[in-house]
């Protein structure tokens, strides 16, 4: 049953607030109740109003023309962000203070959220004060520490209602009002394409037309409005702009809306601006659920929110969870449209139950259920995943520009070298022999590029008419903004692809035993082991770029699963991308083996298609916490991380748990968020040094999803060896060594999953060195292991299928020897006995930057 926690707020920020916390099961009387008080803090009101003015003046995010002219006010994104940071800081100081009467509320709230984190739990903030409803309560860092909850607003005074559950086929009344400067066509198309909705769409209706529709005899389940809207000055109601000449407040529709609510209206969605006043009046009319936007909303934010919401709600996700997922997914566009996640707000009647909607099944599913053939439908679906993918001569779909390629386009370089460019052009034209000649020359004369080697392998398979299986490799090609230009950063993608390309080459060279003349000029022929898959079958690799972007990751996954010949995926690299895409792979039974995803989220709630060759966060946290306490003798630490990253949030939580178990204390500073664009390094170091007692820094940047890595490196520079620093393996790489000065690394230790110097497989090290012309990283080794696991799973099946890949990898007898040791998987997808060690930085004259990572036991480089 749904669990409810309710915070009732009586008062206002300027004079103080009486707070009542209640909790219990929805549908029953509350099981507990305590009271407390929040002191007056008028500065919060002033800061919100200041932020609101700044936000509404940002022309790049606020559409034109305006409904009302705002006073002249010079502002910029930086000004707005500065006020937003101050507002967040004040809200957290206010709610986290230990000296006021609110601490009892906070402690009991934590108990409820921790005890029922696995339940469907709703957090209501119940108040009739427009000022309190308007505050961005989601900024309180308390929520980050106690699970993922969505804050729902609710009215203070109410009468109980009887709510009707949604039917499979729902009726929706959609109003598209005055839309100067707004693209409402997108919203209309989304609603029309969603199955299970019987919709009536009114374009710029008159008041009479709207009222007549609201009085419809059959009634409506959902009321949807897109167009201009606003909240009246006193916050008591909202105004809808129906057409060019008519607008009206919700109060003026009271009779028509009340009729619709009594019949069946359960949900109102206002995908329009400034809607809190609309929600308040509708709540007074006893509508169960309302979704509005807190402030003026840009078109793209409105479109994406509606898309994300409908996508989840129409799949049976509860209303509150669908809103939560949709709101949080807006993070992906906040670099362009700041504060997108601040805008969607859910308003719920206090006695309303959370509800779900299950659209009607299609014709064949209904027949299957009616005649007891549901199993047959399922089996026929599974059989579609069970196709054997040995198709000599089959090429990738020739869609250039889709960020997916097996040789028809270059993904890793914006300005590729000439020979490679010409070779890829020939490959796209299916001129395989000519393509091989040019790509071999590119490898020899231009650079040893893993993308070139993969395309060379793919061309060789096609030219020889060889049989092959296909896997995909998903890598992040990152676009960075450098002053006024965009710079392509493919360093991380190349590290990952080296592992895939090396394994693929070993497999495909095995096809030419006794035919050495055909491959005598092929990279690696003279020294790599030859290991074709049984029955002389090769391996084709499809490269995919997810740009380290969660929305792009999901889109690439949706494209890959449609290519039935793809039997497995190496990737995604970051936890953020994998979490975003995993449900797509799960639904289509396509195995994913990640060399970089370490978040605990994917194995605490296991997906049976997810495996990893890298460690989990719990392993890394133990290394870091134990070293800091046992070896460095540190009793106190500050954690710097990206709170919006599944990877770093999970790692922070695991570190804090372990560090506290070892008797350490984690202290908080205001400047902790490494992902902030205006992260202030000097301020952060000052806050650390102001702590009582020696304080270590724990640096947990994300996997280059944001600029947090560069901010972490700046902290290393400014700290300059004064305080102990331990860090995650995101910092392991040439970008850190580019500091090119040993002093900042004086008290500096990182975790790394692998280091060539201590590798159990020295043959791999030498082969990689010969193939690539230098040392390779842990990312390359772990990716080689992921590809190696795929190769082994393919070889263990007579007729490989997607389902067979999953079952083989999960089997107790599965095992493969990789670059980092034995590869076996636990039932939840974690690697059995994952490798790992601590490293330090030492001088090394024969290395770039004159520095090198070595195990902490070794004071010298080799």
Describe this structure in words.
The chain has 862 residues and is α/β, with parallel strands linked by helices. 37% of the residues lie in helices and 19% in strands. It contains 28 helices and 31 strands. It has an eleven-stranded mixed beta sheet, with helices on both faces. Helix 6 (185-193) runs parallel beside helix 10 (299-313) and helix 21 (617-631) packs across helix 22. The protein is globular, with a radius of gyration of 29 Å.
Can you tell me the residue ranges where pLDDT is under 50 for at least 5 consecutive residues?
63-73, 362-395
Side by side, the strands of the main sheet go 3-2-1-4-5-14-13-12-8-6-7
State the secondary-structure class.
alpha/beta
> Residue share in helices?
25-40%
Strand content: 15-25%
Task: Give me the count of strands.
Answer: 31
Measured between the Cα atoms of the first and last residue, the distance is 61 Å
Radius of gyration: 29 Å
Global geometry: globular
Mean of all residue-level pLDDT scores = 85
Tell me the major beta sheet.
11 strands, mixed
The tally of helices reads 28
């Amino acid at each position: 049953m749904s669990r409810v926690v309710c915070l009732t707020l009586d008062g206002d920020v300027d004079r103080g607030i009486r707070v009542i916390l209640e909790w219990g099961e929805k549908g029953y009387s509350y099981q507990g109740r305590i009271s407390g008080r929040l002191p007056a803090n008028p500065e919060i009101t002033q800061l919100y109003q200041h932020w609101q003015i700044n936000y509404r003046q940002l022309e790049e995010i606020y559409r034109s023309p305006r409904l009302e002219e705002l006073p002249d006010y010079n502002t910029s994104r930086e000004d707005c962000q500065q006020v937003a940071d101050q507002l967040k800081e004040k809200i957290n100081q206010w709610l986290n203070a230990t000296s006021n009467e609110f601490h009892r509320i906070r402690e009991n709230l934590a108990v409820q959220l921790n005890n029922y984190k696995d339940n469907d739990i709703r957090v209501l903030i119940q108040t009739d004060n427009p000022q309190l409803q308007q505050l961005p309560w989601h900024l309180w860092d308390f929520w980050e520490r106690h699970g993922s909850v969505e804050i729902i607003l609710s009215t203070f005074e109410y009468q109980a209602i009887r709510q009707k559950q949604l039917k499979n086929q729902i009726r929706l009344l959609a109003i598209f009002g005055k839309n100067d400067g707004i693209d409402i066509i997108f919203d209309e198309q989304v609603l029309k394409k969603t199955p299970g909705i019987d919709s009536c769409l009114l374009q710029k209706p008159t008041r009479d037309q709207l009222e007549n529709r609201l009085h419809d005899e059959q009634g409506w389940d959902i009321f949807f409005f897109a167009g201009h809207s606003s909240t009246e000055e006193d916050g008591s109601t909202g105004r809808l702009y129906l057409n060019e000449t008519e607008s009206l407040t919700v109060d003026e529709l009271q009779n028509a809306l009340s009729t619709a609510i009594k019949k069946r209206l359960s949900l109102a969605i206002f995908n329009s601006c400034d809607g809190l006043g609309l929600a308040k009046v509708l709540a007074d009319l006893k509508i169960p659920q309302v979704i509005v936007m807190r402030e003026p909303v840009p078109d793209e934010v409105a479109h994406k929110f509606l898309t994300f919401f409908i996508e989840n709600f129409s799949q049976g996700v509860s209303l509150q969870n669908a809103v939560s997922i949709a709101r949080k997914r807006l993070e992906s566009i906040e670099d362009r449209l700041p504060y997108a996640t601040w805008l969607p707000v859910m308003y719920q009647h206090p006695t309303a139950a959370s509800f779900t909607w299950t659209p009607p099944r299609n014709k064949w599913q209904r027949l299957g259920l009616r005649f007891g053939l549901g199993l047959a439908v399922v089996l026929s679906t599974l059989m579609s995943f069970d196709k054997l993918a040995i198709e000599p001569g089959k090429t990738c779909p020739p869609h250039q520009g889709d960020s997916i390629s097996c040789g028809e386009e270059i993904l890793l370089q914006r300005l590729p070298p000439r020979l490679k460019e010409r070779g890829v052009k020939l490959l796209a034209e299916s001129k395989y022999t000519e393509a091989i000649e040019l790509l071999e020359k590119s490898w020899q004369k231009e650079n040893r590029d893993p993308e070139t080697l993969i395309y060379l392998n793919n061309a060789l398979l096609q030219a020889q008419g060889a049989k092959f299986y296909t896997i995909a490799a998903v890598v992040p090609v990152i676009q960075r903004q450098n002053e006024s230009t965009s710079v392509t950063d493919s360093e991380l993608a190349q590290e990952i692809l080296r592992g895939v390309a090396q394994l693929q080459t070993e497999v495909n060279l095995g096809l030419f035993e006794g035919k050495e003349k055909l491959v005598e000029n092929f990279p690696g022929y003279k020294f790599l082991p030859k290991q074709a898959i049984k029955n002389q079958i090769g391996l084709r690799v499809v490269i995919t770029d997810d740009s380290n972007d969660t929305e792009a990751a999901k889109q690439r996954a949706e494209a890959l699963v449609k290519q039935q010949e793809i039997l497995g995926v190496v990737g995604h690299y970051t936890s953020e991308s994998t979490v975003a895409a995993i449900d797509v792979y799960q639904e289509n039974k396509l195995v994913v083996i990640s060399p970089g995803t370490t978040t605990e989220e994917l194995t605490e709630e296991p997906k049976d298609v997810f495996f990893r060759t890298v460690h989990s966060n719990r392993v890394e946290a133990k290394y870091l916490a134990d070293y800091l306490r046992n070896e460095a003798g540190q009793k106190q630490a500050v954690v710097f991380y990206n709170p919006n990253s599944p990877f770093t949030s999970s790692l922070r939580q695991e570190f804090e748990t372990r560090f506290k178990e070892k008797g350490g204390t984690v202290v908080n500073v205001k400047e902790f968020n490494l992902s902030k664009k205006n992260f202030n390094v000097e301020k952060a170091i000052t806050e650390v040094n102001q702590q009582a007692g020696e304080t270590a820094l724990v640096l947990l940047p994300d996997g280059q999803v944001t600029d947090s890595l560069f901010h972490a490196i700046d902290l290393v520079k400014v700290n300059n060896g004064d305080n102990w620093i331990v860090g995650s393996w995101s910092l392991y790489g040439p970008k850190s060594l580019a500091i090119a000065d040993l002093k900042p690394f004086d008290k500096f230790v990182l975790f790394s999953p692998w280091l060539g110097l201590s590798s159990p497989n020295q043959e791999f090290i030498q082969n990689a060195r010969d193939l690539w012309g230098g040392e390779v990283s842990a990312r390359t080794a772990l990716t080689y292991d992921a590809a190696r696991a795929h190769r082994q799973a393919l070889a263990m099946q007579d007729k490989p299928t997607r389902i067979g890949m999953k079952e083989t990898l999960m089997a107790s007898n599965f095992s493969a020897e990789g670059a980092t040791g034995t590869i076996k998987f636990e039932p939840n997808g974690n690697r059995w006995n994952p490798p790992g060690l601590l490293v330090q930085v030492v001088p090394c004259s024969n290395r770039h930057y004159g520095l090198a990572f070595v195990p902490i036991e070794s004071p010298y480089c080799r």
